[in-house]
Design a protein that fits this description.
The chain is α/β, with parallel strands linked by helices. It is built from 15 helices and 16 strands. Helix content is about 40%, strand content about 25%. Helix 12 crosses helix 13, helix 12 crosses helix 15 and helix 13 crosses helix 15.
Length: about 425
């Protein structure tokens, strides 16, 4: 594979920033060089020092004055919901029944699911996202099409076939046995093939019977290295319904605990309305709440209190949640997260937001050894950011004097236009978008 040496300003975090001006939490090179070869980062440092290590035939790409960071990571998104975005509804359950469950039935069609998979990855790359944790539909073929397209583009993706056997249209349900067999098929076919990882995916307790939850737990025991993804406590009516369906459970969180579905690789979308007992149980299991701010605001679900979650000892992640979410952009997502935390009386400095889109979400996924940094040996997923991408941003940049101010500008005013280039495993990604 072609060796590439990127020149520009480099930023990569070594840990979570502990303060707004925590300059020891990251590596930064004002005139940096990033050497990529064979899908990995070979060297990070000053341009001249890295150039001295590069092979004679290296391709040098000068991205100055732009900022180069690890590719963004989106840990909760629904690929069958691309055409649900912006659908008017008053609440989560109304939105699911009116739009989402109808739309997802279309993914029984191989041609449709393959087409949407292509458009899905187009949008991720356009917005600088190089890794996502995605829900497919209930149809096994939707997962096959997802991973086939991810393989074609050599993206690091995590996804799973949704398991749901009740409280949905008949055309969108499986059975406990078929959900087990179909999920295991997807695991056997795709997990560890190329850069693909499979997640066990019971949609949420409302759409899975106790028998299906038993099957999800059996899959987790059989495949202990896999991520598990589901939804938790997004909406108060959802919580009430889930607890009615599982009356012996202490609370919503306890439903998942009873079936062995809570652990360090469990990703729990939303997790807004949690009791102290639930926070303690999640912390003991080392499970990961995943906040979805644009979705939670759009559907009026509630405000995620990050500091309360962290005070309980939990890692937290942030995600777009397309199609309840309203933007594919992690920049836009973190801008809404910032506003939600402002309302909750919490501060989220720009350095922290940038860490969360990259290393922070990688930490939450347990994948920091592969993605989320520009460290030597990391997979070469990289985004190039232009803080002057629009006239309004360029005007604001005239008054920007620090890295933190630049990051905040891109967070508050940026979108897909801010993404100048994306490298996927060391290869240019935006140039291969399908139109």
């Amino acid at each position: 594979m072609t060796a590439r040496l990127l020149r520009g300003r480099l930023l990569s975090f070594t840990r979570k920033p502990e303060a707004a001006d925590d300059h020891t939490s990251y590596r930064y090179e004002d005139d940096g060089g990033l050497l990529m070869q064979d899908g990995r980062i070979k060297a990070f440092g000053s341009f001249q020092s890295v150039k001295a290590k590069a092979p004679d035939d290296v391709v040098i790409v000068d991205h100055r004055p732009h900022l180069i960071m690890p590719g963004f990571i989106d840990p909760h998104i629904h690929y069958p919901q691309m055409q649900v975005v912006g659908s008017y509804a008053g609440s989560l359950l109304e939105w699911l029944n009116t739009y989402t469950f109808i739309e997802e039935q279309r993914f029984d069609d191989e041609i449709h699911s393959a087409r949407i998979a292509g458009r899905f990855f187009d949008e991720l790359v356009r917005h600088g996202t190089t890794t996502a944790v995605a829900y497919c539909s209930v149809h096994r073929s939707s997962a096959d099409n997802f991973f086939a397209e991810a393989s074609r583009r050599n993206l690091r993706m995590i996804a799973g076939k949704v398991m749901m056997d009740r409280n949905a249209p008949d055309a969108l349900t499986d059975t406990p046995r078929s959900s087990y067999e179909d999920t295991q098929h997807v695991i056997d076919r795709w997990h560890g093939r190329g850069r693909n990882l499979v997640a066990i995916t019971p949609r949420f307790a409302i759409t899975s019977s106790p028998e299906q939850m038993e099957m999800a737990g059996a899959l987790a025991r059989r495949n202990p290295d896999l991520h598990i993804q589901t939804h938790l406590s997004e909406n108060k009516a959802e919580i009430e319904f889930a607890c009615e369906l599982y009356p012996s459970a202490k609370d919503y969180t306890d439903i998942y605990a009873r079936y062995g579905l809570l652990g360090p690789r469990t990703l729990l979308g939303h997790a807004i309305h949690l009791s102290d007992r639930e926070l303690g149980a999640l912390a003991a299991a080392e499970a990961v709440p995943v906040s979805c701010p644009t979705s939670n605001l759009f559907l009026g679900s509630g405000l995620f209190d990050l500091r309360r979650v962290e005070k309980a000892g939990l890692r937290a992640a942030f995600a777009t949640d397309i199609g309840g979410g309203t933007s594919y952009s992690m920049l836009r997502t973190m801008d809404e997260a910032y506003k939600v935390q402002q309302l909750a009386g919490n501060r989220m400095p720009p350095l922290e937001s940038a860490w969360r889109m990259t290393r922070g979400n990688a930490d939450a996924l347990g994948l920091t050894d592969r993605i989320g940094t520009l460290d030597e040996g990391s997979e070469a997923d990289v985004v190039v950011l232009d803080a002057q991408a629009t006239p309004a941003m360029a005007l604001k940049m005239e008054r920007v004097t620090t890295l933190s101010e630049e990051l905040f500008l891109m967070q508050t005013m940026g979108d897909d236009r801010t993404i100048r280039e994306v490298y996927v495993a060391g290869e240019p990604g935006k140039s291969v978008l399908v139109h």
